[in-house]
From TrEMBL:
Residues 281-298 have a biased composition (Acidic residues). This is Endothelin-converting enzyme 1. Residues 867-1105 form the AB hydrolase-1 domain. The chain crosses the membrane at residues 51-72. It is a single-pass type II membrane protein. Belongs to the peptidase M13 family. Its main location: membrane. It comes from Hermetia illucens. The keyword Protein transport does not apply. It is found in: Cell membrane. Residues 277-302 are annotated as: Disordered. Its cofactor is Zn(2+). InterPro entries: AB_hydrolase_1, AB_hydrolase_fold, MetalloPept_cat_dom_sf, Peptidase_M13, Peptidase_M13_C, Peptidase_M13_dom_2, Peptidase_M13_N. GO terms for biological process: protein processing.
Length: 1122
């Protein structure tokens, strides 16, 4: 039966007529019965037989054709993959997917709609995905392995790691040791058990204090491997990777002592930095403004200190009172609070130095600069750091390096050997030198003391672990913690990953799995090279070198085979000791062993090995080795062993392609096939590549994350987005090559309706399923990787292969970015455009800075009243707005918090070579985000007013209302333009350092009077002079950068905001005696701010200082409006 109609029926004889019927003289047989035999003649009988035979042949042919068609239609359902891998993959996909969703509308929901429900997020994690789920599985495996009995058959190294685990788990032994291990290490680092600042006698002493801080830093580095104040490392020369050199610069490495996990560590560091940068300034503000420095909010009690300060206070008190039973902080915490405040101040300064150093060498093209790497001898380094403290000198580097290399197998000659550094690192070291020169050694000592105690405390008693847990929980808002057993297993895995991976390795992997992964990677490389050959914007020479680098790229898959050899494994870890009762000593011993090995690699030929341990669920690309590392831990479900190569290529295949593409992204393209850093692309190719950058930056920058209430940073995530897009295309075309050479695959059970190309994309989508809290989404904005949902959306938006495979109409795939829809029409050759992601993109703008600020708030703020953020003018600072901010805060109804900020290159905010209104607006938005402010009212004066306008026009969602004091977006004041002429004079002024601040200002006033004729302007400029404790006179602004960017400030970028409107409340206050805001321009201003009001005051440009009372009343009246 087909469609309910008989295909062939044999009629019953009794129901049929025996003779044909006639119709219009023509005989026609309506039904022919094979049982009818004609009797008229032999001819008829023969003819009849032929007819019957022919009909039978036709019928048989029809049946055969039908069977063939039906067999083809059901082929997918009859040729199924029924292996356990296919069954598992199909079951898991069906559980995760939401097939009610059109894949062309929302592919993430289609592939991951039910994943969070099927994979509940553990309370100890703020985000959860396949990577963390599989890593937890590895952790449980490692724990089970470490819990096994120690046997004589175990290699010596395995016996040691099992002993390390037992020591970590022995809480009774930890309690018995108490805090004595911390005291022992303080002695080893030449640090006092009770820092001078916490010693009542020494803290108040005015006698010179001796402290060899360089010696302590060296010992900490050699024993803990931890950078404090100075960054030290030994690594390959970037321009000659065959030899190792010493590197000096910004501190990079914290201690490798076990922590919950790397993700938690990053989040804690971020929140700690945020808390420290939020620390309220007090007495310094008063002194700078001529006040007494004694204000009602100038000191903090222990109970009101921020969470990090309270943590320092509690742990420091516990350690000091353990070291000296005669010390008792319970009666009075004043000395402790004062010391903690100094730690916060030092940490804040170091953050600022690091940020200034990071910004100093950034370019618009990329984060790397061939000329940034410096090879210096120690004498030249000393000369450069002394420049900031001249005519004094602070000898550091020869002593530091000599002590560091003492006892190493290789000697360093200070007179002839060179170290590696960079322009950014030199700037940091200069700032650090100046800071050390001007600081009290007691404060430096306590900062170093705390840095050590902070690292060691969590590995001692239950009381200190509880303090640390509460501190962490208050920072990153976790709902629970992992068990002690998993904590210990993870810690040992981090410290001795190769040894722990002994439990993962097998001969079977080497014989069966590695060859298949090698073949897949070979196909991906072929696909990559085919795509490169089709590019028309890359010149032939560059193309040949790119292909050469691709073929030269090495791969490390699974694990190093020497792990399986007990003798070699024991030899590798020779020198490590383990004791079941001394947990902290065990851990530190491993770090010391590591550091000793590192020091012995100086000047030796670098033998690049594995970028990570085999137990790590991830994959890596090492630029200087031109190598991809794929640990065995990631070669498991759901990344691999999925039954069908369509699924394998969609999962691990795209990861392999991602890592291969990193070799040619905005960082990888800087290194040639040998791993040396130099320009091997032609200038023309680089120019073409840079010109194509904005497509990806703007596309991903257009994705808004509701839980984070912000947009993805397209510049920050650019390199990973390039690798994602390239990896998908390469893996897809590699799977095509596999199919061509191996034929079609069977169907996946339950997915017979999908083609194998569709299964490829479904597997890729499943890779990025995740479950995340709103807080984790905020952290994700600072990651170089987009959240999984947006990684998937971005890549598939750019994939014509995906659209074709799922039959999506042009434009039906959600793009969420108006720019990119326009870009698809703009570029005629879409495939050509997408190919560039396989080679490289690279333009990155500098990150926003974290602005310094002073907050004013009362106790009667209720609800979610938006705070008022005050943005000052050129050459000013938050200090000039202190009294006005307080007046506004005290009179605002309902009560509002008022926050005065320092814009970049002013006051206490970091310096940056970039200074445009776009940057200022990004800083404001970043400030709101860092302080968890959803929306704010903005008040800006002059240049600050322009920054406020730009922010409101570009980021209206974060602006409640604006007040602009004497600033206009339409024209530029002639008075303002005249300021450009004073910069050369400001740069050339020299003052005798022996003069007082008042005498210095008088001297400057005389020197500047010939250039600045306006008395008020002259006094204003002189307010920004400050004198360091070392006697140097400094401007409060970055004069050089402001001069360079003056035209950016003088002219408002009207073209950037043409077509934008801010439709919220806006008040413009104009000084009638000023030319900064002309009444005649107000109608033009209303084109951008339709609800703008204009208030005239009989004043000059500085309305808020000429008529402070009237100005405050005007502002308060406006912000009090509902």
């Amino acid at each position: 039966m087909e469609g309910g109609t008989p295909v062939w029926v044999i009629p019953e004889p009794g129901n049929q007529p025996r003779v044909p019927t006639a119709n219009n003289g023509t005989s026609k047989c309506t039904i022919v019965s094979p049982f009818l035999v004609a009797v008229q003649s032999k001819f008829r009988r023969k003819y009849y037989h032929k007819v019957v035979f022919a009909i039978l042949i036709v019928i048989i042919l029809i049946l055969l054709i039908t069977i063939i068609i039906l067999s083809f239609r059901t082929r997918k359902s009859t040729n199924k993959c029924e292996s356990k891998e296919c069954i598992r993959a199909a079951s898991a996909l069906l559980q995760s997917m939401d097939m009610s969703v059109d894949p062309c509308d929302d592919f993430y929901q289609f592939t991951c709609g039910n994943w969070p429900e099927e994979h509940p997020r553990p309370d100890s994690l703020t985000s959860y995905d396949w990577f963390s789920e599989r890593q937890q599985r590895i952790s449980r495996h490692v724990r089970k392995f470490l819990q096994q009995n120690i046997t004589d058959q175990d290699p010596v190294t395995i016996r040691k790691v099992k002993t390390l685990y037992r020591a970590c788990m022995d809480s009774e032994a930890l309690e018995k040791l108490g805090l004595q291990p911390i005291l022992d290490y303080l002695k080893a680092f030449d640090l006092p058990l009770v820092p001078a600042l916490l010693n009542q006698t020494l803290a108040n002493s005015t006698a010179p204090y001796e402290f060899d801080w360089i010696k302590s830093l060296v010992k900490i580095k050699k024993i803990l491997g931890m950078d404090v104040l100075i960054g030290f490392d030994i690594f390959p020369d970037s321009q000659n990777r065959s030899t190792n050199k010493i590197g000096l610069g910004t501190p990079e490495s914290g201690s490798a002592l076990p922590f919950n996990d790397e993700d938690h560590y990053k989040k804690v560091k971020r929140e700690k930095r945020k808390i420290i940068m939020e620390t309220v300034e007090n007495s310094d503000d008063e002194k700078d403004e001529g006040g007494s420095g004694e204000d009602e909010d100038s000191s903090q009690s222990a109970s009101s200190m921020p969470v990090y300060s309270r943590y320092i206070l509690k742990v420091s008190a516990a350690v000091v009172m353990y070291a000296d039973s005669n010390v008792n902080f319970e009666a009075s915490t004043d000395i402790l609070v004062s010391a903690v405040e100094k730690i916060i101040a030092i940490t804040k300064e170091l953050y600022k130095y690091t940020e200034e150093a990071e910004n100093i060498t950034k370019t618009e093209e990329n984060d790397y600069n061939y000329d940034d790497i410096l090879h210096l001898d120690l004498a030249e380094l000393q000369k450069q750091t002394d420049e900031t403290v001249s005519p004094k000198t602070l000898p550091i580097w020869e002593k530091f390096i000599t002590l560091m290399m003492e006892g190493a197998a290789v000697k360093f000659n200070p007179a002839t050997d060179q170290i590696l550094t960079s322009k950014a690192d030199i700037r940091y070291l200069q700032l650090l030198t100046e800071f050390i020169m001007e600081s009290d050694l007691k404060s430096i000592e306590f900062f170093i003391w705390w840095s050590v105690v902070d690292e060691l405390a969590v590995h001692t008693t239950a009381a200190l672990r509880q303090m640390h847990y509460e501190y962490m929980r208050s920072l990153i808002k976790t709902e629970g913690s992992i068990s002690r057993s998993l904590y210990c297993a993870n810690g040992i895995n981090n410290l001795m990953g190769m040894a722990v991976s002994y439990s993962l390795v097998s001969e079977k992997f080497l014989v069966e799995t590695r060859p298949k992964v090698d073949l897949m990677l070979s196909n991906i490389r072929r696909a990559f090279n085919n795509l490169v050959e089709g590019i028309n914007w890359m010149d032939e020479e560059t193309k040949l070198q790119t292909l050469d680098k691709s073929w030269s790229m090495k791969s490390l898959i699974g694990f190093p085979e020497w792990i399986m050899n007990k003798t070699t494994l024991d030899s590798f870890y020779k020198g490590i000791e383990a004791n079941e009762t001394t947990h902290l000593n065990n851990m530190v011993g491993i770090l010391t062993w590591r550091m000793k090995r590192k020091l012995n690699t100086l000047k030796r030929k670098n033998e690049f090995g594995w970028a990570t341990s085999p137990s790590h669920v991830n994959a890596f690309h090492t630029f200087q080795a031109n190598t991809i590392t794929v640990p065995i831990a990631i070669l498991q479900y759901p990344f691999y062993e999925l039954g069908l190569e369509a699924l394998n290529y969609g999962a691990i295949g795209t990861i392999l392609g991602h890592e291969l593409t990193h070799g040619f992204d905005d960082s990888g393209r800087m290194f040639d096939k040998m791993g040396n850093m130099h320009q091997w692309w032609s200038n023309k190719t680089i120019e073409e590549y840079v010109n194509r950058t904005s497509c990806f930056v703007k596309q991903y920058g257009g994705y808004y994350i509701p839980d984070a209430e912000d947009y993805i940073n397209g510049e920050l995530t650019l390199g990973e987005n390039i690798a994602d897009n390239g990896g998908l295309r390469e893996a897809y075309h590699a799977y095509k090559l596999y199919r061509q050479e191996n034929g079609p695959e069977p169907a996946l059970p339950g997915f017979e309706q999908f083609t194998h190309e569709q299964l490829f994309f479904i597997s890729f989508g499943n890779l990025w399923c995740e479950s995340a809290t709103p807080s984790s989404m905020k952290y994700a904005l600072e990651d170089t990787h987009c959240p999984g949902q947006y990684r998937l959306k971005g890549v598939l938006t750019n994939s014509p292969e995906f659209a074709k495979t799922f039959g999506c109409r042009k434009g039906s795939v959600k793009m969420s970015s108006k720019f990119y829809r326009n870009a698809l029409q703009k570029y005629q050759n879409f495939r050509q455009l997408m190919t560039i992601n396989i080679i490289s993109f690279g333009s990155r703008k500098p990150k926003p800075i974290s602005m310094a600020y002073r907050a004013f708030e009362g106790t009667d703020i209720v609800g979610n009243t938006a705070p008022l953020v005050v943005v000052h003018d050129l050459f000013a600072s938050k200090r000039q707005w202190k009294n006005m901010s307080r007046a506004i805060q005290e009179n605002a109804k309902p009560a509002r918090k008022v926050i005065a900020v320092d814009i970049r290159n002013h006051g206490d905010s970091p310096h940056s070579p970039y200074h445009t209104y776009a940057h200022l607006a990004e800083d404001i938005v970043n400030f709101l985000k860092e302080n968890d402010i959803d929306r704010a009212a903005l008040l800006g004066h002059s240049v600050g007013g322009r920054a406020v306008m730009y922010t409101a026009l570009k980021y209206p969602q974060v602006v409640e209302r604006i007040i602009v004091a004497d600033g206009s977006p339409i024209s530029t004041s002639n008075t303002f333009l005249q300021l450009e002429s004073i910069f050369p004079r400001l740069k050339s002024i020299t003052i005798n350092p022996e003069l007082s601040i008042a005498e210095g200002r008088d001297t400057m006033k005389r020197q500047l009077a010939k250039t600045i004729h306006n008395e008020a302007m002259l006094d204003f400029v002189l307010k920004n002079i400050k004198k360091t404790e070392g006697g140097r006179f400094l401007w409060g602004q970055n004069i050089h950068v402001l001069h360079t960017n003056f035209k950016n400030m003088a002219h408002f970028p009207i073209e950037d905001v043409r077509g934008y409107q801010y439709r919220g409340p806006a008040l413009f206050i104009s000084g009638s005696k000023s030319d900064f805001l002309k009444v005649s321009e107000f109608e033009d201003i209303k084109r951008f701010f339709p609800k703008a009001e204009l208030q005239l005051m009989d004043s000059g440009h500085d309305i808020h200082t000429e008529y402070p009372s009237e100005f405050a009343k005007t502002v308060v009246s406006f912000i009090n409006q509902s």
